[in-house]
Amino acid sequence: MTDIAPNLATPLERLAAEAAATAAGRNPHGEEGERYTAVNSEKNRPLYESRVKVYPKLVHGTFRRLKWLVMAVTLTIYYVTPWLRWERGPGLPDQAVLLDFPARRFYFFFLEIWPQEFYYVTGLLILAALGLFLVTSVAGRVWCGYACPQTVWTDLFLHVERFFEGDRAARIRLDKSPLSFNKIARKVGKHIVWLLIAVATGGAWVFYFADAPTLAAQLLSFEAPLIAWLFIALFAFTTYLLGAIAREQVCIYMCPWPRIQGAMFDEDSLLVSYRADRGEKRGPHKKGTSWEGRGDCIDCGQCVAACPMGIDIRDGMQLECIQCALCIDACNEIMDKVERPRGLITYDTFRNQELRQAGETPRVNLLRPRTVVYTIALTLVAAVMLFALLNRATLEANVIADRNPLFVTLSDGSIRNGYQVKILNKEHSARSYRISIDGLEGAALTRPALTGEHDEIVSVNPDTLVNARFFVSLPIDRLKQLDKGEAEFTFIVTDIENGTTATKKTSFKGPIK
Amino acid sequence: MSEKHKDDVTGVETTGHSWDGIRELNNPLPKWWIYTFYATIVWCIAYWVVMPAWPYITNEGWTYTKGLIGYEQREVVTGELAGIVESRADAMLQIAEMPLRDVAADPALMELALAAGRAAFGDNCAPCHGSGAQGFKGFPNLNDDEWIWGGTLEDIQYTVNHGIRWEANDGTRQNIMMAYGRDGILSRAEISDVAEYVLSLSGRSENAEAATRGSEIFATQCVTCHGADGTGNRELGAPNLTDAIWLYGGERANIIESVSNGRSGTMPAWEGRLSEATIRSLTLFVHSLGGGEE
Fold first, then answer.
1. Using one digit for the tens of pLDDT, what is the confidence trace for B148-172?
2. Which residues in chain B are closer than 8 Å to A49, comparing Cβ atoms?
3. I need a labelling partner for B211 at 20 to 30 A (CA). Which of A212, A329, B94, B145 fits?
């Protein structure tokens, strides 16, 4: 045997023959390897490859239905939430979920988060991270396969493509066929619907940042601010690019999650797997013949056809597999047809595969240290956040003492310090507060001239912060209170109606005698 | 040396390197990736041509390529500043024309006036009066309640407009303290005595005899401006010698220096140099520092 059939026509066929030879342990280039070297042999492998288009086939089954459900729920939440209303009182927005950037507030139903309370968002992110770790360690890439916006929108766009161009075989035929009115009409229709969905997606996004009914009316009458148009255009473009064009390329090449999640499973995580112990040896099966001495896999290739990533799950766990479980449905359909038990491809764990190989009984081990720890951490963080939210004060006070100058000597020799008292009224009604001080004997509390009648009363509008300037003076004979030129005291802010108080410690500074 | 292995599972070659036994598969890059990369390079070069980009050296020093459209960041900032000034024009007009007390009574206008005053103070007044208006020797502390020329809104506005002993301005505040020692009006001993008396006005005298002698000198030389009881005269800009605030220092040596060499500090006149709205904002700001008088 000198070389591998040099008269095979295409490089691809030569490559296939090469691969077969390698698999059989022979030198793919023959003894006289120098004479025949295919353009795509190991020596000449290209650095870049063209994308191979994937034509996923429609399947029916439990997991397809589950994906539909998740898609319906997530898309409904995304598109409908900005339209939900929540009454908050006059002058305040009535949108349930609103990120009000100009007013610097985040409204979420009964919650109202100020920029100073941004740590709630940190808490949310921590919860999201812990939730992800927990779910991934239990059931693998559930996020990737069911809930990720990339998956959901790509799935939706695939259905649109299927609607216009038919299922897998029809789509492949259409792409191969020459240009015709039919082809153009189908393609154009598909792209139009894709663009409409993309614009609607961008539109829904901007509605989170402005009052939805108002902005919608403005958009329809072309009176909306430029920034709204820009963001709608941006999100429409990215939705179209990533969901309609890039699809699986995002998961394989762009997204960091596959790499991270790969590190989050362990031997007990339930992952979409091909049960090789049941399926091998694979091969075609004639109806009526026995299933003895062979595997259940009839090599129909439906799992590959159904896969939106275009991979073969029978090759094993791989980065491209987003664990959407459509191959499970595809294989189960076939198993039903050939009257074999379902579950040739199923959610299985590494440990169970080893156990079965060793002849022991497999078990599902959900309650293990990792999952328990994640659950406890999740519960704790959620509890802390809930507690903080429920005990949120509606009145806050902050005091900033003047640093330049530290103190002023008045004509009668007394020492005066200046303070900025910041009062945050988080109620939905205007309130008046009395300011007083405690901890300095003989101190006088005054305000700059021209302030008005009631010096110690400060009125604050609803949902606002007011910065009030106060002076505290100590007469000469009281300066003994200062230790090395400093004495601590407290500002007390009292709501004159309901008596709620907020206090803040600060210091009085004088000459160091 | 690099040794390329073929991974059993995927059939893909490794890069050939091994890091502690870990190898990396050498999958081909997707073509769209490399085309996007080339596109960014094209964009980069186009950007260099269109926008200001590269510094280079000439005979006159360093300069930079200006770009085809002449985009200037400084122009953008100037434009933005002009826009801000325009958006405040109405309110500033009100500040310039309404009576000062009416401006003070309007919280929104007052907020703007105080902010404008604080900014203008930093640019114009802080070099002498200090960044916190705390003053230095010879430059008054504007936070306290001692005013040489008066601390009402009108007094402050007049002082800011016309300055103090500012020759170029017609209405400037005028008066000087003579140099009693340098010009030979009083002898050394007399100056020492009158200083002792002045110290006694704020209860710090240690030599009653000298103070009594000094009181007679004070009665002839000083009361015209500083008043019979030494409490000062705002018309003449003569400070109150009985309180705890001393512009040039209140120790014996400082008082002797003031009497001997005289005092005639100056302050620029700001009318014509600053807009009416700015001067009024400064007035309101200084008045609000803590010593403003009704």
1. 999 999 999 999 999 999 999 999 9
2. 28-31
3. B145
Q: Which residues of A49-88 are buried (b: 16+ CB within 10 A; e: fewer)?
A: eeeeebbbbbbebebbeebeebbeebbeebeebbeeebeb
DSSP state, residue B139: B
Q: Per the structure block, which two tokens stand in for B111?
A: 């907020």
- Map out the domains of chain A with their CATH numbers: 1-49 (no CATH), 395-509 (2.60.40.10)
CA atoms within 13 Å, Cβ hemisphere of B248 = 20
pLDDT tens per residue, range A122-155: 898 999 999 999 999 999 999 999 999 999 999 9
Q: Is the peptide bond before B107 cis (omega within 30 degrees of 0)?
A: no
Q: What spatial distance separates the first Cα and last Cα of chain B, rounded to whole Å?
A: 89
Q: How far apart are CA A275 and CA B235, in angstroms?
A: 104
d(CA A132, CA A411): 67
pTM of the model: 0.76
8 A C-beta contact, residue A501 and residue A423: no
Residues of A in contact with B145 (CB under 8 A): 410-411
Mutate to test the interface with B, among A320, A415, A450, A470 (most CBs of B within 10 A): A450
Closest-CA distance, B11 to chain A, in angstroms, reads 9
How far, in Å, CA of B110 to CA of B31, rounded?
63
- For residue B146, the chain A residues in CB contact (below 8 A) are 410-411
Best probe of the B interface among A411, A412, A420, A471, by most B CBs < 10 A, is A411
Residue B211 contacts residue B200 (beta carbons within 8 Å): yes
Give alpha helix (H) positions in B98-176.
Answer: 100-105, 107-120, 126-129, 153-162
Q: For residue A21, list chain B residues with Cβ-Cβ distance below 8 A.
A: none
